[in-house]
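Re: that chain you flagged

S.,

Sorry for the slow reply, it's been a week of failed gels. I finally had a moment to sit down with the sequence you sent. For the record, here it is as I used it:
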Amino acid sequence: MKKFILLTLFVLGAITVTVSQNNTNRNKKLKNMETITTTDNYTFELSEKVTRKKVHFKNRYGITLVGDLYLPKDIQNTKVAAIAISGPFGAVKEQSSGLYANQMAQRGFVTLAFDASYTGESGGEPRHVASPDINTEDFSAAIDFLGLHENVDRDKIGIIGICGFGGFALNATAIDKRVKAVATTSMYDMSRVSAKGYYDNMSAEERTKLLEKLSLQRWEDAKNDKPALTPNGLPNELSGDEPQFVKDYYDYYKTDRGFHPRSINSNSSWAITSPISLMNMPIMTYIEEISPRPILVIAGEKAHSRYFSEDAIKTAAEPKELIIIPNTVHTDLYDKVDIIPFEKLTTFFTENLK
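Prediction finished late last night. Pasting the C-alpha cells below so you have them in one place:
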C-alpha cells in the first residue's frame, strides 16, 4: 500500500501501518473533538448503586496519580475487598478502566480506576511517555492508596489490567506480594511486542535499525528540550484498506463509543523514543512468581492480541485460568458489558480476596 501514516508501536504492536486520510476532514474533525469538555466526558453511565470520587496519590517516584474511586453506596462503615484497575494502553480512566470499576463496584468491591504516569490527568513530565518500571509502579502506588482507605480490607486487594496494562498488572503482581489475585483482559505484553514486533517477526537487523533510529532521535529531543511525538496516532478517517484491528481501534477510540480528548489513542500519539526501555526490559520475566496467588486471563477468540494471553498462561504457574470469549475481537473487551464476563470476574475475586 502506497498511502501511509505512522502509527505508534504501542497501540498496534507494529512499526508502521498504512492508512489514508483527508487533511481537511481530519482538521475539521479534530477541531470538533477539541470542543468536548474534559470534566464529565465519561464513556459510560455511572451506576445508581455506586458513588464516584476523584482522588490523588503519589507513586514512589513522586509522580502524582489521579484516579476515580468507586464505592458501593451501601458500603457504610464496613471494610471490603478492593480492586485497582488501569488500561488500556494509551487510554484514560474515563474510558475502559472506569467502566470496569463502575461494574465491579456494583458487585460490592471498592474499585480504583487511575490514569498512568505521564498520561491523562496524572502528573509526570514530559507527557505521553511509557516506562515498564514506572507503569508497573503505578499499580503498586494504587495498592498503597487502597490499603490506607477506611473502607478497604488491605488483605483483600486485587488488580485488573486491560490491554497493555494487563502485562504491567502481571509484572506488578509478581513483585508486589500485597496483591492477592490478578485478572487481565485483552492483554498485551508491551515489552515483547516492542522488542520483537508482532508475532515476534522483527528480525535482529530490524531491531538494530530501529534502535539506531531511536538513539539518534534522542539527540533531536535533547536539542529541542522536549521529546518528539510520532507524526500521528490513529487516523481520523479510514480508507477501508486498513487491517481489521486498526478498524477495531478506530471504532472505539475515534467514535462516540470511546473517544476522550485526554486519551492518547483518541487524540494524540506517543513519544517516538518510548519503545527504548520496553525493548530491553521484558516484563514477563518473573510471572511464575505470582503463584500461589491466582491469575485469570481473558481474551477474545478473534483478537489480534490473543497470543499474548495464551503465552502468558503457558509460562505462569498454577493456579491459573485462561478464558477465550467466542467471536470477540480485542476491543470488544474494552466496553461491551454484554460480552465482558463480569460475573466470572466477580466470582474470581470473591473467591480469592478472602
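What I noticed first: The two ends are 54 Å apart (CA to CA).

Talk soon,
D.
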